[in-house]
Amino acid sequence: MNEHVSQEQFAEAALSGVTPALQSHLNGCFTCRVELERLRRALGSLAEDAQSAAARPEGFWTRQQETIAARIQSGDFRAPSAQHWAGRLAWAGALAAVILAALLSLRPDPQRPALELTVVDPDEELLLGVEQSLRRPLPQALSPGVVLVTERNRAARLQQASARP
Ligand SMILES: [Zn+2]
Q1: Which terminus of the chain is less hemmed in, N or C, by CB atoms within 10 Å?
Q2: pLDDT surpasses 70 at 119
Q3: CA of 75 to the centre of ligand 1 (A)
Q4: How is the chain split into domains, by residue range?
């Protein structure tokens, strides 16, 4: 193997192990050793995040929903809570984006222009998506999101109304 390790080979090595041919290249190539180590570290921390999120018991989400409902009823509803909650839901999408970005950034192809990644606020995007689907039948799991969006919109209207003379 005379050429550097390809993106596909890096991904495969990070996920399922280094082949003998790859190992012999790595032995003689510092650049590729560094790249592989970088990808492994990135995937390792992602795996830890995934495990801690998956380890949450089902009751956690129910309590989360009840807490939100209670806060809305008592009028003690603040934007940071909504953002935190939405951030949890957006986690899966963000994870996919990070893996994709890590793979794409491994070795930019000189023949191709660098790929530009558009950075969007995942919280805002999620709330927008929930908002757009309000008129459609929703799976049960999304119902807390509808409560949040509805309440957020109501709060915004109230603010606008009270701001008028
Ligand atoms: Zn190399």
Answers
A1: C
A2: no
A3: 60
A4: 1-55, 58-165
